[in-house]
Amino acid sequence: DLSIKILEYILLVDPKNETALLLHADVCFISSQFKKSFASYKNLICLEHNSKNTKYKKEYCHKLIISNQIEKAKNILKDLVEEKDMIDVLYYKSLILIEEKQFEKAFDYINKCFEINKQYVQGFIVLGIILERQKKFEEAIKFLKKALNIEKNNISALRNLGMIYSHIGNLDEAISYLDKTINLDSNDHESKYILGQIQLYKKKFEEGW
């Protein structure tokens, strides 16, 4: 990929270029080049090591969970012990528990998030994800829409609503939410893939396949 090569050239000249490191981490992750992506995240974490900022450590943790590297994510969480990080730690722990299918424990962690912030958007999204995994689609929709009432352009909430509506056969509604997601983030490949599958199914159905 040309953009990755350009970023790697910039980093060869200036290995501590924070903007280039972040772009490299994101582009490599989107391209499923996880080893390169995580190497850049580790360099970003080194840059913020002497500050009290933990932004990149949390982003790295989230990417590890998405790529199903659960044990590594757990190790990162052990380092996030500051009070200001607590709600994020609870959130990431809930995501790990979802992947481990420990839904009741995940609920408990999200409830602790709401004790800290009653309007915690990511909490409503996680509740939606848990309920979707349990095939409680109508309840999942309710919580995801609560997230959108607080943050109307939240991509995760929009994408998950699109996925759920596709599961229950409301394809027009699914397409509407996925279109919004892609309009907000043209690099959202997951939404593009789901939308493509829906459109292919609709085309086959209309042609009587």
Distance between the termini: 37 Å
Mean pLDDT score, rounded?
A: 89
Q: Please identify the structural class as seen in this structure.
A: mainly alpha
Please compute the radius of gyration using only Cα atoms: 19 Å
> pLDDT below 50 for ≥5 consecutive residues: which ranges?
none
Largest sheet: none
Number of DSSP E strands: 0
How much helical structure, as a percent, in the residues?
A: over 70%
In DSSP terms (H or I, runs of 4 or more residues), the helix count works out at 12
Proportion of residues in extended strands = under 5%
Give the ordered list of helices and strands.
HHHHHHHHHHHH
**Overall body shape:** globular
Q: How would you classify the quaternary structure? A: single chain
Question: What is the strand and helix layout of this fold?
Answer:
Layout: H1 2-13, H2 18-30, H3 34-47, H4 55-66, H5 70-79, H6 86-99, H7 103-116, H8 121-133, H9 137-150, H10 155-167, H11 171-184, H12 189-206
Helix pairs in contact: 1-2, 2-3, 3-4, 4-5, 4-6, 5-6, 6-7, 6-8, 7-8, 8-9, 8-10, 9-10, 10-11, 10-12, 11-12
